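sorry for the late reply, my laptop died twice this morning and i had to redo everyting from scratch. anyway the thing you sent over, i finally got around to it. pasting the sequence first so we're on the same page, its 137 residues, then the predicted structure underneath. double check i copied it right bc i was rushing
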Amino acid sequence: MEKVERIVKPFYDALEEGKVLARKCTKCGHVEYPPYLACNKCGNLDTEWIEFAGKGMVTHLLPVGAAFADTDFNKLVGNRVVGVVEIENSDPLNCTILGIKPEEIEELTPQLPLLVRPIITQLDGFKIVCWELDKES
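ok and here's the structure:
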């Protein structure tokens, strides 16, 4: 990776080590994921790196839009949908949820929220974080 901003470099370095990082506000405890330099809840500029080793809850599921339905990413990861994931003390975020076929959304929706866990995926020379249903719980 060339010219990575300082705020994202530790994040991507940690992904290479199999760890997912976030930033935690030292004032209010709000978690910023993906990481930001300032707290979006209270505006505090003093945040620290934390390792996110936990799980989240997916609260909404949507099919991938037609414009993104036939991409190299799909070929790499297989079945996927878009979901809203909530992590404790963090804002909800839109994420890729792996392992779910679009036709399964209707069946899964009444069961929401469902437990999900982060999964680190290799994409075009760098790693990204996706999510998958935590079937072990």
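The two ends are 36 Å apart (CA to CA).
thats about all i looked at so far, will dig more tmrw
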